[in-house]
Write a structure and sequence with these properties.
The protein is α/β, with parallel strands linked by helices. It has two domains: 1-46; 55-152, Sandwich (Immunoglobulin-like). Helices cover 29% and strands 33% of the residues. The protein contains one helix and nine strands; from the N terminus they run αβββββββββ. β1 (55-62) and β2 (65-66) form a beta hairpin. The longest helix has 44 residues, at 2-45. The chain is elongated. The N and C termini lie far apart (105 Å). The mean pLDDT is 83.
Length: 153
Amino acid sequence: MRQNNQHKRNHALTSHSNRRLNKFVFTGIVLTVLGLAGVLLFNAFYRAPLPVAGNVIDISADMGGFDKDVIRVKLGDPITIRLRSLDNSHHTDGGGKHQWAVDEFKANVVAPPEGTAMTTFTPTKPGTYVFYCDICCGGRANPTMNGKLIVEG
């Protein structure tokens, strides 16, 4: 009988140790899977900032237009336009995206809903040029969706 009790005690200790080991291994596996999922999601959604050249001009746009209607730059100086769309994707007119474009310099950038995008270009001719958003809100015909880029020599 004494051996039987000893056997039960050893079995209980072994069973308890196995449960602790199983919990430890399970926790380790779960943490590893969650960590790998986190790394994969981060890499899928993280966008490294683009290199920025010259002057950076921040412009915000929403359904009401651009926050700047006149931009002054120097001839030959590279500029980076950092366009931010303040609208969300639920807008039926343009889906929340906004554009900033100047045809004469082939400058064109489209910001995603509630996101930011950049373009860099160098103005090569002095003068006054129209910048615009033609994605939504009446496009170029809407006076709040365009402005003047003044290149000073």
